[in-house]
Amino acid sequence: MAKPEYYYGVHSVESLLELEPERVLTLFALKGREDQRLQHIFELAEPFGVSIQKASRDTLEKLAGLPYHQGVVAAVRPHPTLNEKDLDDLLTASKQPLLLALDQITDPHNLGACIRTAAAMGVEAVIVPRDRAASLTPTARKVAAGGAEKVKFIQVTNLARTLSQIKEQFNVQVVGTMLDEQALPIQQFDFTGAAVCVVMGAEDTGLRPITQAQCDQKVYIPMAGNLQSLNVSVATGMALYEACRQRNI
């Protein structure tokens, strides 16, 4: 049996029990904590026979790897890693999906925040490079606040090649966000009537040239004053909101 993963935080554990309860092996709850939020988690777990163990704060911290566990940690069967084939299957089955690609986002907090926003905006999959990028760690899952259980997280060997393939095989429009002379204000791009993949780059370096080369259109978020950039998770939220506004999601 594969080694279990550990999810922590109220939102993350609640979402897991609501969407994939069969994966939960054991719940570890802080001794002496009795409140409605924790009781709700116990009620979600009870129908599935999930073992509940009371644990000290030190034990929870060791399981979570951090002290910010909110008094609950779940031991979970690992989720299969999704890859290029899973993306192909999704695009074959979906009509005009909205996708998000993240180019070398290395901070798990930013990744989690982007996934949380993606889930709220109806994104079907978040695509990231397998190397030199944050993975779906317990920290990213906690920040995602349940979003990681609602959006497919797909790791690919070569992001630029994957973007090229989904354009060619599935007619996905690839839209990159960047400051560029050829970029349109984001509200002027038509996000309707087609499958769209919004591509976001790292705050310090932006999209790599090899990724830029796969973008059908470059867009930017107009800003007042002299600001030139935003936190990637904030910019992702603004870009996805505009896409959803146009698509009436």
Q: Can you characterise this structure?
A:
- This protein is α/β, with parallel strands linked by helices and 249 residues long.
- The protein folds into two domains: 5-76, 60s Ribosomal Protein L30, Chain: A (2-Layer Sandwich), CATH 3.30.1330; 84-247, Alpha/beta knot, CATH 3.40.1280.10.
- It is 36% helix and 22% strand.
- The chain has nine helices and eleven strands.
- A seven-stranded parallel β-sheet has the order 7-6-5-10-8-11-9, sandwiched between helices. A four-stranded mixed β-sheet has the order 1-4-2-3.
- Strand 5 (98-103), helix 5 and strand 6 form a beta-alpha-beta unit.
- The N and C termini lie far apart (41 Å).
- The relative contact order is 0.15.
- The mean pLDDT is 90.
In summary, what is this structure?
Helices cover 36% and strands 22% of the residues. The protein has 249 residues and is an alpha/beta fold.
